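Re-run with default settings, no changes from the original entry. Doing this only to confirm the output is reproducible before filing.
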Amino acid sequence: MSAPSVRQRRLGAELRGLRERSGLKGDDVVGRVLEILQQRDERAGTRRRVGRDIDQPRLSRIEGGRLGIKADVLDALLDIYGVDDMAKREVLHALAAGGSRRGWWQTYRDIISPAYAELISLEADAKSLRSYQTLLVPGLLQTAAYARASISAINMTATPDQVNALVEVRMARQSVLSRPEPLEVWAIIHEAALRTPTADPTVMREQCQRLLDRMELPHVSIQIIPQDAPPHPGMAGAFTALSFPESADLDVVLVEHLASALYVEDAADVSVYGSAFEHLRAHALPFDKSADLTARIKQEYT
């Protein structure tokens, strides 16, 4: 995509933070990177114009999330900043490679927005996802029939073929729940989402059963906020927070609107949503009572 991706901006912010904590100026860093690259080329018996890979303007654009970075330059920077944690290095390399990685969702690039493609890409790399929804069941927990009904209602001008494709995307996204190291999902859903007549009774009944089934998975936690709950931060709207291995600094929050989506990336702002989620957990029913309420609502759809 033409605009900087979320992962590119997060990588840039992390590299800028590492440099600042190291007490180094940009010019100093560039000089040391060039030395490291030249030494590596000499050992490998190769020659190149390393100045094309890094200079002060390029470093500034990388840190600002406006330019990607080559793997060897990233390695040199991490060496300079003293990043010895291999897990963290792998995370940062995954962020650097993610911008050019082609995932299965690229097949649908003509019908999904850049923000949606970014979400799918981030879900593929995330360790955990926390979601609060007011009037919809989270996409990772939807049945195909429920997804079709909600997509048709929200995407008012979509053709039947486009709706079919979007349903396929939503179902494919759910593979993160069955991968070898599954995504850890904590969903807090307002009771209104289960009582909104998004689809016919049979569809809603099956959707409630899907939630009950997902509640049995060890990596999926689902709580319901009852309609009579007191005022809470969720009244401001739905959001999704994604966390990544080894580095809380890379966490992001997605806030979706009808015609746009906003990624919240500033650490202080992300922390606000984290606090809001904790408040929502306190307002939601415990897991067993959430299951009981879901089962009762299921029985109401006859």
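The beta strands are 128-133, 184-190, 220-225, 239-243, 252-256, 261-264. The mean pLDDT is 89.
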